[in-house]
Amino acid sequence: MADARRRARQGAIALLVSGGLLALVFSQMDTDAALARLREADWRLIGLSFVLSFAVLIVRGLRFRFLTSQSPFSSVIAAIAGQNFLNRVAPFRLGELSLPYLLHRTTGEPPATSLIMLVLVRLIELWALFVTAIGAVLGWFGGAEAERVVLLAAIAAALGLTLLTFRRWLGLGLRLADALARRTGLAERGAVRNALDRVHEAATGDARLTLRQHAALLLGTVAIMALQFALYGCLLRSLGFALHPLQIIVGVTAAQVAGALPVLSVGSVGTHETGWAAGFVWVGLALPDAVMTGVYTQVVTLAFAVVFAGPAALWWVRRRRDG
């Protein structure tokens, strides 16, 4: 009963946070202009965006397949399709946990190892985003935004250092999690204690990424970023916004960083739109247009995620039934 009440409170807070952010965003949108652009939207470019979104899913699946020990590509891509959808609607980025869970349930993949690989993937993605953003900001603004470039460089350097000392930080995080579990009494629960022990065992093991896995991780991340920038560029063009690639990189990076924050909201609803608007206003797009395109890209890409998650869910149900 206590858990149910806690989840209900968290759900209510998530709705309030997302609702508040959306209310703020919509208050800046020119509804008539937005509807006029939607009526003139280029469906061919929306279709191309769908193809690019599917390509992102495929590359994500290939990248993580190289990081698993025994999961076939079909299982990995189905799990990632589900994870992508859940991340769009679950608070605190809790949808991330569905990937190690699903892979373990269907292929026996060690969930602790999958979780560690997932954390590594997300860190590399964030680092690559900030490094790319630095180049884009310098290319677009020159030296006019030196203070912000220094801030971006500091964040990128911190992320890079974290990656270089990943296992050390992972060990520290596990010690903090263990202390928190003991303090809150969660350590007395067998499932929690077992999960912490398994992650600790995986983190302190001798396994290291091979050269092939490093290559897959780095090349896959670069390919995913390029495809995502192209995807959002197509969606912007479908509404008649022909922006410079550097503007797209800065704006999309702001949206992705905002959406990746572990905020108690309904997934990335509200955070994506807010980050998108801030990023694109920074590079010169009018606020009403930045807000409208932020909402538009959220709705369209969420629809893509639903389309991909549907067949994945059916595949998982059939896989469990055939067992």
Verbal overview:
The chain is an all-alpha fold and 323 residues long. The chain has one domain. Helices cover 80% and strands 0% of the residues. The protein is built from 13 helices and no strands. The longest helix is centred in the C-terminal third of the chain and has 36 residues, at 287-322. It is globular, with a radius of gyration of 21 Å. The model has no long low-confidence stretch (mean pLDDT 84).
Record keyword descriptors for this entry.
single chain; 323 residues; mainly alpha; 13 helices; 80% helix
Task: Detail the poorly predicted runs.
Answer: none
Report strand %: under 5%
Number of strands: 0
- Mean pLDDT across the residues is 84
Count of DSSP-assigned helices? 13
Overall outline: globular
End-to-end separation in angstroms reads 33 Å
Secondary structure class reads mainly alpha
What is the rounded Rg?
21 Å
Q: What is the H/E string?
A: HHHHHHHHHHHHH
Give the biggest sheet: none
Q: What share of the residues lie within helices? A: over 70%
How many separate structural domains?
Answer: 1
